């Protein structure tokens, strides 16, 4: 179930605040603690605060510090994009969002406002953020200046873009629509969008569209002379007082703003009296132009009035100030509670709130993005820190990964080898690894060496291993590190940067052994594709598994998938889909599929199935129309090692996917193998998943 929703717009001045305020009011009636988060905000002055965050948090009294409610300012994002640091942007947004999510029952995430530099890339950024956070979206656009076809087309394109990127759109809203066109907009959108998408339109409300006296004063750098308590008065139009008072009084409008030179005492006093008179409309305020303030007797007269609307003084001329006032775009702000209440009222009136609340509660994400997957891995590792031994301590990649892991306090590390050689290697690499945070153990000099050798002898004497042979074997770092895990002196082991797979896992097979319910050790890779994470198995251990073994690999891989937050939908891969093919190889996959269904009827499994039918929804529906897996598989079981190993490497190299693993399945304690061509990132990620395995998944 989703714990958040993303509000996104297609343009500036769309009236996004009405959705944020109305939705926050709705959510606070459904959840005990609701959070508010903006991934990217406009730049603000030192010591200042973002207006959107201040408005929402102040009005609803949210318990969230300003610094926690956003990730980046606009200029910070532009700088990082110019430096090709996009991963850093998404990484920090995920981290800050998750910190808010952990403290709240639900989080309202508000997208960017399309103001200032960089607006051309904002729409795409919002899609990417929503996708990586794994949350559904609500889309809106303004009807101001658009035809019906233009508004509907704008929202249709936005919907298609979010959908194509894998972001579920719950609702589409046309905002600031002429009242007489509301039904037309709703009908137009319903004709273009799936029935599962909620469609609404909100009419243009002059009270929300027009600025307050405070906004006008701030925009003109004005000075408040009188009536400061009423600066939140809404302005419903303006008129210039340049004629004689008797003629100007005819031009006053309800809640209108009076603009007049500061030396026109007759207009000033006449407007104030008209505001108090039952025979004339009330005014919202007075703007005095030219930098002129009324003379002292006039000021004294004004001070003595029982009620005074805001009077502000500005430096510019009357004509210039009138033009600037006409161009002001109104914004919501915390002090203008009348406008906030009006926004919430309009939201409740024109939005299908019950249906929207139901959509939010029942939404479930289809998958997880690579960045969120990696974030979750690291978070889980840090939550219950484990002790991992790395036996290949003189390899530069191992040392670099060890530094990264200890710097972020993800795991406790033990390095095996001669301390002087390790320190010398670090010096040559100019690597500053805090040796106070890691253990360095020389196997031969270890006080545990003799005990380990005797333990190995007892475990393997039935295989003709004597004590001398056990001591010789224990000098091997693979045996020593595996024995550390077996004895509980370490929680897991990662090796293979230098040694072969057989060298790495043979000790584990000999005395760590498999879990009681498992007869086969197998492996999986977590394939971090551009938009999702899937599981490939077995790509590292078993050359030619029979049907029973294939079934066990599938079941183990499904359990691993579930443990790491990926819903398992198993594709038993072959060169044929369904009943269309025959032959020894395809029959073996078919038989394995039936075994999985019999042993684990709770699992969604399809086989035999071709790779394209497993990943492409259209192909899958055409070949296997009633399948729960076709077109949306998350766990791919390859028929043999040759196919699996080559496929994962092809996908990795051709798509730029990150392959995390291999992770071994079925052992009593976690021991994992690296490829000799592994990178520092491969080692880092494998250590992290080993630590999570050690937590008892």
TrEMBL record:
It comes from the Bacteria. This is Phosphate acetyltransferase. It comes from Pricia mediterranea. Keywords: Acyltransferase, Cytoplasm, Transferase. Pfam families: AAA_26, DRTGG, PTA_PTB. Pathway: Metabolic intermediate biosynthesis; acetyl-CoA biosynthesis; acetyl-CoA from acetate: step 2/2. Its EC number is 2.3.1.8. Residues 215-326 form the DRTGG domain.
């Amino acid at each position: 179930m989703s714990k958040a929703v993303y509000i996104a717009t297609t343009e500036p001045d769309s009236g996004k605040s009405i959705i944020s305020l109305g939705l926050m009011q709705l959510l606070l009636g459904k959840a005990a603690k609701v959070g508010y988060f903006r991934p990217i905000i406009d730049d603000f002055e030192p010591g200042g605060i973002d207006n959107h965050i201040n408005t929402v948090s102040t009005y609803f009294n949210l318990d969230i510090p300003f610094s926690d409610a956003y990730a980046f300012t606009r200029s910070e994002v532009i700088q990082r994009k110019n430096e090709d640091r996009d991963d850093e942007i998404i990484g920090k947004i995920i981290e800050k969002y998750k910190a808010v999510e952990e403290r709240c029952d639900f989080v309202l995430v508000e997208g960017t406002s399309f103001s200032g530099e960089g607006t051309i890339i904002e729409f795409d950024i919002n899609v990417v953020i929503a996708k990586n956070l794994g949350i559904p979206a609500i889309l809106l656009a303004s009807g101001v200046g658009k035809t019906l076809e233009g508004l509907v087309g704008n929202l249709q394109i936005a919907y298609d873009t979010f959908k194509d990127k894998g972001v579920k759109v719950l609702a589409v809203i046309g905002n600031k629509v002429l009242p007489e066109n509301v039904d037309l907009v709703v009908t137009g959108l319903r004709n273009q969008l799936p029935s599962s998408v909620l469609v609404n339109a909100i009419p243009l409300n002059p009270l929300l569209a027009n600025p307050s006296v405070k906004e006008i004063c701030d925009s003109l750098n004005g000075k408040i002379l009188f009536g400061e308590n009423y600066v939140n008065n809404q302005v419903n139009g303006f008129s210039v007082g340049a004629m004689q008072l008797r003629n100007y009084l005819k031009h006053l409008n309800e809640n209108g703003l009076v603009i007049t030179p500061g030396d026109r005492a007759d207009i000033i006093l006449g407007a104030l009296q008209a505001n108090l008179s039952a025979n004339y409309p009330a005014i919202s305020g007075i703007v005095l132009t030219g930098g002129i303030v009324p003379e002292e007797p006039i000021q004294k007269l004004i001070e003595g009035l029982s009620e005074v609307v805001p009077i502000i003084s500005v430096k510019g001329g009357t004509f210039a100030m009138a033009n600037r006032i006409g161009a002001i775009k109104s914004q919501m702000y915390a002090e203008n509670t009348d406008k906030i209440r009006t926004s919430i009222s309009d939201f409740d009136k024109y939005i299908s709130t019950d249906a929207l609340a139901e959509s939010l509660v029942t939404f479930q994400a289809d998958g997880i993005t690579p960045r969120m997957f990696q974030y979750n891995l690291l978070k889980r590792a840090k939550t219950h820190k484990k002790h991992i031994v790395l036996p290949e301590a003189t390899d530069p990649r191992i040392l670099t990964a060890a530094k990264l892991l200890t710097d972020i306090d993800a795991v406790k590390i033990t390095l095996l080898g001669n301390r002087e050689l390790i320190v010398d290697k670090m010096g040559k690499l100019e690597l500053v690894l805090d040796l106070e945070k890691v253990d360095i153990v020389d196997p031969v000099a270890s006080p545990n060496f003799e005990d380990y050798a005797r333990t190995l002898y007892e475990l393997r004497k039935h295989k003709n291993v004597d004590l001398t042979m056990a001591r010789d074997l224990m000098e091997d770092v693979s045996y020593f590190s595996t024995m550390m895990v077996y004895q509980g002196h370490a929680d897991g082991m990662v090796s293979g940067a230098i040694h072969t797979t057989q060298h790495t896992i043979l000790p584990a097979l000999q005395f760590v052994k498999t879990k009681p319910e498992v007869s086969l050790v197998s492996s999986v890779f977590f394939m971090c594709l551009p938009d999702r994470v899937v599981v490939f198995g077995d790509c590292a251990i078993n050359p030619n598994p029979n049907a029973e073994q294939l079934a066990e690999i599938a079941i183990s891989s499904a359990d691993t998938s579930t443990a790491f937050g990926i819903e398992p939908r198993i594709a038993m891969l072959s060169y044929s889909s369904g009943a269309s093919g025959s032959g020894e190889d395809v029959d073996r996959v078919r038989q394995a599929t039936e075994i999985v269904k019999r042993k684990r009827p709770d699992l969604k499994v399809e086989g035999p199935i071709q790779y394209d039918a497993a990943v492409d929804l259209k192909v899958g529906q055409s070949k296997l129309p009633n399948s729960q897996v076709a077109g949306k598989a998350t766990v791919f079981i390859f028929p043999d090692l040759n196919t699996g190993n080559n496929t994962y490497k092809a996908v990795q190299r051709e798509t730029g996917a990150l392959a995390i693993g291999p992770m071994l399945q079925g052992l009593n304690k976690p021991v994992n193998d690296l490829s000799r061509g592994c990178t520092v990132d491969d080692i880092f990620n494998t250590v992290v998943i080993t630590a999570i395995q050690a937590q008892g998944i």
